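Appendix B, Record 12. Input sequence as logged:
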Amino acid sequence: MGKAITHKQVLEKFGQKMQKVRQSSGVTQEELAARLGMHRTYIGLIERGERNPTIRTLYKIAKALKVPASDLLPF
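Logged structural output:
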């Protein structure tokens, strides 16, 4: 059986996937933050795996990027 993934690894993988989707959409951190009513630094913290966004925030991010929420999940 494979090695268990840690909480930190989940956050990092989510952040990396979110960044990839955001960049593929041609959206900057500043633009995404403005769409969400959040500060740009919070977006950066999520993308670096330093914050654990709520499910509600995940759906807001997906809506702002015009993608299904499942596209943001790294698994």
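The helical segments are 7-24, 29-36, 40-47, 55-65.
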